[in-house]
Amino acid sequence: MISIDCELAGVPLSNPILAASGTFGFGKPYADLYPLRKLGGIVSKGLTLNPRPGNTGTRLYETPSGIMNSIGLENPGIRAFLDSELSEMASHGTAVIVNLGGGTLREYTEGAELLTEASLKLQAAGKRAIDMIELNISCPNIKEGGLAFGVENEQAQAVVRAVRRATALPLLVKLSPGARDLKEMARMCEAEGADGLSLINTIQAMAIDIRERRSVFDRAYAGLSGPAIKPIALRMVHQVARSVSIPVVGIGGISCAEDILEFIMAGAAAVQIGTFNFINLRAGDTLAEELIQLMDREGIPSLDDIRGII
Amino acid sequence: MISIDCELAGVPLSNPILAASGTFGFGKPYADLYPLRKLGGIVSKGLTLNPRPGNTGTRLYETPSGIMNSIGLENPGIRAFLDSELSEMASHGTAVIVNLGGGTLREYTEGAELLTEASLKLQAAGKRAIDMIELNISCPNIKEGGLAFGVENEQAQAVVRAVRRATALPLLVKLSPGARDLKEMARMCEAEGADGLSLINTIQAMAIDIRERRSVFDRAYAGLSGPAIKPIALRMVHQVARSVSIPVVGIGGISCAEDILEFIMAGAAAVQIGTFNFINLRAGDTLAEELIQLMDREGIPSLDDIRGII
Amino acid sequence: MALVIQNVKLAHRIYRLTIQGSYSARMGQFFMLRCWDTYPVLSRPISVHNLTEDSVSFLYRVHGTGTWLLSALQAGDKIQLEGPFGQGFPEPQGRTALVGGGIGAAPLLLAAKEIPDASVYLGYTSVPFGLTGFHEISRNVTVKSGGTIVDAVDPSRYDTIFACGPVGMMHSLAQKTESTNAELHISVEKRMGCGIGVCNSCTVTSAGKSRKVCTDGPVFPAKEVNWNDLHRL
Amino acid sequence: MALVIQNVKLAHRIYRLTIQGSYSARMGQFFMLRCWDTYPVLSRPISVHNLTEDSVSFLYRVHGTGTWLLSALQAGDKIQLEGPFGQGFPEPQGRTALVGGGIGAAPLLLAAKEIPDASVYLGYTSVPFGLTGFHEISRNVTVKSGGTIVDAVDPSRYDTIFACGPVGMMHSLAQKTESTNAELHISVEKRMGCGIGVCNSCTVTSAGKSRKVCTDGPVFPAKEVNWNDLHRL
Ligand SMILES: Cc1cc2nc3c(=O)[nH]c(=O)nc-3n(C[C@H](O)[C@H](O)[C@H](O)COP(=O)(O)OP(=O)(O)OC[C@H]3O[C@@H](n4cnc5c(N)ncnc54)[C@H](O)[C@@H]3O)c2cc1C
Ligand SMILES: Cc1cc2nc3c(=O)[nH]c(=O)nc-3n(C[C@H](O)[C@H](O)[C@H](O)COP(=O)(O)OP(=O)(O)OC[C@H]3O[C@@H](n4cnc5c(N)ncnc54)[C@H](O)[C@@H]3O)c2cc1C
Ligand SMILES: Cc1cc2nc3c(=O)[nH]c(=O)nc-3n(C[C@H](O)[C@H](O)[C@H](O)COP(=O)(O)O)c2cc1C
Ligand SMILES: Cc1cc2nc3c(=O)[nH]c(=O)nc-3n(C[C@H](O)[C@H](O)[C@H](O)COP(=O)(O)O)c2cc1C
Ligand code: FES
Ligand code: FES
């Protein structure tokens, strides 16, 4: 019997495959396509304290084996999420991870407090609540100017420290590939009490509409994701997994069971599937089963046997 | 009449399309396929003072819309190049750019001196010689450990300064996408007297052979190139072109005339074609013509009309 | 995975693809199609053109890589489709006109079937295509090649108008309709990631609010859309 | 761009592709093929199987995406090929044997044509394929399905042996040949970027030196190769 159940930051998962933030909404439409308990967990779209309208203009663009997006964190705000989405999101029999974004330190901490409070109340009432917060420190559009929170170690530290104080929930910090020193930032997060790290977020990229003679996106740059970035993401996950002892969640271009094994061998405790959900809306229906079959063929009894062996 | 001739670091080019280092050898085999004067110039494979055997194991690997390579700077050394390759390389009627790598500061400066000396001698004899040096500060396998020269500004500065002193030839510095602060490094190069910048070199990436349970490459990481990285390269070229006033040569995933225009609009003075030479061994035979046709369709009389307009 | 029954070329770059299976869809809804593995990354949204008990068909124009790959399909080939998605056209009130420009005719065949007494107006820049289906269903088909079909439509004669076509055409129809009592609904296009409302990439402004083309649309009341935005897409 | 004349399936995953055009190539040389745009990135190296005045043909096994795309080609389709590249097999001296394992038979047909009195040994894990061509050319064809073809070859009876097949098979043939006077030349495979000697991705060690499979090979003297290296590729 091959086992793929695992644990992430103290939360037991039926398998290591999570749906990545921004590509899965709060799960709802996918639940019509397959039972979401087939996933280890789902990460909510990025939420901020207050609702955000998102960016104007083109928001999505296709590139060779990738897509670029500039959604700009459009979201209904944490209160609306708690009121209208959380209970359904927690009803699918899979782990609930809330992706928390923000523009200022206060927005982050107030958001974390709201989430924590609501979650504890639900738990007290015996209901499934928020299993984990994923802190996104690489939001576009923030006060400090662009990706600064995710780039400079000092700025990241302030956010991680404050949010860590604001919540008792298990805390993942999602790192940006644009960090000036990724390994250093990972170690900082560990030192500040993060329970785990997830990476990578999209890579800053550009596309130009040569007919219109302007950037395709209203904000000059946008984030690249999808199979194109997988080799870069894998390298970064490998580097980070060897730099810290907290678990690392691998993200970036994963689109088959082989890719998942690569990330686990590189040291990931679990993985997230982002863009691939668009390539195959039913990806999560079969990936766990495909992973088991692959491990069977390769004679790998459990993920622990191969995790971080490279 | 649409004109695409241009000037790079004082060297007149018949068009802005150069062949990128490591993908074109010294030109020879391509010369059997088409007249190399159709290119604006060719950049030699990376040369070091002494011959290098290159890396063991797998050296090339295909990824979605990209390739990874870990050649490890295999090359015959500068002396052998000067003796056996330069005169033919200079015979194609196109600009000759020598890509200079190194493991230590001394290797770089001695290399630059040798090249400069040989070039001046040839010029004195009325022969075409080396038009430009492209300093590659992002070689793998160097003394300082991995990509350090291209990552840390201080280390890069030492190399650029020393090589600038060692040569009177026009000097391009080729930047690594792994630089901790790319814009800062670009400004440093300008301050140190570089005549131009070229970017990007390959992006550090990883692939794992899950059957063998080891990295595909003997050295864990390798460099990613090809269409997959174009959106990232374009963003970096845009950032750098706005940070300096010396010319910038755009490199990364270019595979059609549209791509070239994107880089020029992002601020590039010229471009280099790397991986695409493998996709189409005769790429250089038609790209300049295709660029003219595209400019004609889009009503762009010259590259100067659109350079850096984004 | 579904099977291709037929993929016929109707005109230069225009194809009709028929796929086996029993689907139900409302007029104006769309499917996300792909007949390739992971390259290109995204599936392509295509409106339902026609439905029978055991097939669904699409009318499409070869635009770029994706539709070019679709055009190479042959009977017996496999294709992936997810859907139907979107709200489609609303219940029409009173006298109804369907106005299509070029490939914008695609979703109107199903509409013509659902609203048998609707007047159909189809405009083409050059050679018309896909007319047989319309003529079989409706006795009231006006076709114009060259010029603009909007000239042929008198909005004051209708209570409901459904339109699909180039933004310019729909905009001029909207301007013409403004002074009448007709309710104009237009089918809008925007680049889609998921097609199911999770990625927020297909938003447009309608009645001052951010709406998703894939789940709130693709059909919106012409009065509520932001034409400046639509022209830019 | 060249035209496909024929692409026939000979066995499970095995195809023979015939392309229009007048090419000249030596036995053991290869072409870089592609019938797709930029995805996948690299062209695929395939040995020349046969040549006529107005065609070149390839025998290939469907391995991954590239060969799978090749297998979908039909008569009249377009394909890009560059070549021939590489040195191919050297001039044979004296009595010659050609030993192929599985798809390794591919380059040996041209060799059998150029060396009409050579003995041909072909081994297959299961069902043999592509034999007709060999039987038309040579009276001396030994075929073995299952087991190893090396058992059927007595190297001491030959002065020159050309082999192509799995590394394990070629290695055991090399060991068997060591004690004889026969010169064994093997055709080597390694991932290729350019195919023309510029990228240094296809290097192997031969006689202690770094050599390129694409321009110095793909054929190397068995005595000079580094088997450890080859087993790892
Ligand atoms: C709801 C809806 C219904 C549609 N119905 C039809 C139809 O019935 N028949 C038909 O021919 N076309 C229809 N289209 C347009 C069709 O989706 C595009 O022509 C197609 O996606 C182009 O893909 P491509 O790969 O050929 O072009 P490319 O330009 O190579 O595509 C690149 C990317 O841009 C997107 N894209 C390009 N053009 C459009 C567009 N106009 N709308 C949305 N995304 C686009 C593609 O989906 C892809 O992600 C519809 C679009 C939408 C949004
Ligand atoms: C000189 C030479 C001659 C060859 N002649 C033949 C022939 O006549 N018939 C035949 O069936 N095969 C031949 N091969 C092997 C053939 O090139 C590979 O099977 C093919 O490249 C696999 O491509 P793919 O996309 O199907 O597989 P994938 O595994 O998807 O290919 C991924 C990448 O790996 C490379 N690759 C995979 N396997 C090999 C391999 N064995 N050798 C080199 N590169 C590989 C591909 O070229 C591609 O770049 C030859 C190889 C070489 C080097
Ligand atoms: C449309 C889209 C929206 C995204 N929104 C968010 C977000 O709100 N918060 C976040 O942390 N990451 C967001 N991401 C990043 C993904 O979660 C993931 O890190 C990235 O896409 C890389 O994974 P992939 O290549 O599998 O898509 C988004 C990605 C996409 C494509
Ligand atoms: C096989 C290979 C070898 C390369 N060797 C060198 C080199 O020796 N020196 C160098 O500066 N860049 C080298 N490069 C990097 C290219 O010059 C170029 O910067 C990079 O590939 C990105 O461009 P592309 O996407 O068009 O290939 C090499 C790239 C490849 C693919
Ligand atoms: S396409 Fe994803 S929300 Fe509409
Ligand atoms: S394939 Fe490029 S050197 Fe051989």
Automatic annotation (TrEMBL), chains A, B:
The active site is at C139. The keyword Oxidoreductase applies. Its main location: cytoplasm. Its EC number is 1.3.-.-. GO terms for cellular component: cytoplasm. Gene3D superfamilies: Aldolase class I. Keywords: Cytoplasm, Flavoprotein, FMN, Oxidoreductase, Pyrimidine biosynthesis. One of its GO terms (molecular function) is dihydroorotate dehydrogenase activity. It is an enzyme of class 1 (oxidoreductase). It is found in: Cytoplasm. Pathway: Pyrimidine metabolism; UMP biosynthesis via de novo pathway. Residues 6-295 form the Dihydroorotate dehydrogenase catalytic domain. Binds 1 FMN per subunit. Substrate binds at K45, N69, S70, I71, G72, L73, N136, N201, T202. It catalyses: (S)-dihydroorotate + A = orotate + AH2. InterPro entries: Aldolase_TIM, DHO_dehydrogenase, DHOD_1B, Dihydroorotate_DH_1, Dihydroorotate_DH_1_2, Dihydroorotate_DH_cat, Dihydroorotate_DH_I. FMN binds at S21, K45, G46, N99, N136, K174, I200, G226, G252, G253, G274, T275. The keyword Flavoprotein applies. One of its GO terms (biological process) is 'de novo' UMP biosynthetic process. It comes from the Bacteria. NCBIfam families: PRK07259.1, pyrD_sub1_fam. Catalyzes the conversion of dihydroorotate to orotate. Belongs to the dihydroorotate dehydrogenase family. Type 1 subfamily. This is Dihydroorotate dehydrogenase. It comes from Paenibacillus glucanolyticus. The lineage of its organism: Bacteria, Bacillati, Bacillota, Bacilli, Bacillales.
From TrEMBL, chains C, D:
CDD domains: DHOD_e_trans (cd06218). InterPro entries: Cyt_c3_hydrogenase_gsu, Dihydroorotate_DH_ele_sf, Dihydroorotate_DH_Fe-S-bd, FAD-bd_FR_type, FNR_nucleotide-bd, PyrK_electron_transfer, Riboflavin_synthase-like_b-brl. It holds the Pfam family DHODB_Fe-S_bind. Its cofactor is [2Fe-2S] cluster; FAD. Binds 1 FAD per subunit. Binds 1 [2Fe-2S] cluster per subunit. [2Fe-2S] cluster binds at C194, C199, C202, C214. The keyword Iron applies. GO terms for molecular function: 2 iron, 2 sulfur cluster binding; flavin adenine dinucleotide binding; metal ion binding; oxidoreductase activity. Keywords: 2Fe-2S, Electron transport, FAD, Flavoprotein, Iron, Iron-sulfur, Metal-binding, Transport. It comes from the Bacteria. Residues 1-91 form the FAD-binding FR-type domain. GO terms for biological process: pyrimidine nucleotide biosynthetic process. FAD binds at R44, P45, I46, S47, L59, Y60, R61, G66, T67. Belongs to the PyrK family. This is Dihydroorotate dehydrogenase electron transfer subunit.
